[in-house]
Amino acid sequence: ENHNEMTKGIPELKTALSELYNNSNSIELNNNKFFALASNKLFIQIDSTRRIDISLENTEFTKSTMIAYDIIANNISKRPIYFSGYSVDDFFGFNDYLSNEGIVYRLVNEKQLPQDIIVEIKAGRVNSKRMYENLMHNYSWKNFDKKGVYYDELHRSIIELYAEQMSLLAHTLLAEGDTSKSLAVANLCLEKLPPSIHNYPYILAEISLVYGQLGYEEQSMQLMQSVLNNFE
Prior knowledge:
single chain, about 230 residues, alpha+beta, four-stranded mixed sheet, two-stranded antiparallel sheet, 8 helices, about 45% helix, about 15% strand, disordered N terminus
């Protein structure tokens, strides 16, 4: 009864998709018919006690979005679902249900609690264990530390994303009290993406703060000075 009361008036995603082309949900405008969802508030039922609540912010609902929702609604309890951390800006209303595992976000069944760190989190919560394993052991860092290699605008933005993720992980580990791993991530960033080759001053300032909080004041000041020189 409590569940029925909670979901009253809010359609389940599968139901909303199946009724998307129902004439009762259509809108007439200038003699043209537009189909619409019954509501911008939706949910996915995971089991008898858990569900994911979705609030759609965009007024347009494209076919590609419809397909993405259909895939998620029919597979979330069966197999892992991931969003790309680079190519996806819109997480379709699932921002609070994402777990950052390093360049990718995994869609999880439970709402993720916010983390108290000074750097911005794009969505969800950092899974520091999985992210550390991926960045430190699973990812291949090739040629990023070699001089004379040309990187076009696309690849420069990807490199900046790598640095951003390492900064995010270093600060997360620092907040969790794992100072040794936080230092290892900061060192990896400077080793694999040398500031002398790649330009990411804002992120470098964040890395500088990590070294400062870990007690490496001289290295922290050197990095911050390089950031100031860059801006100057």
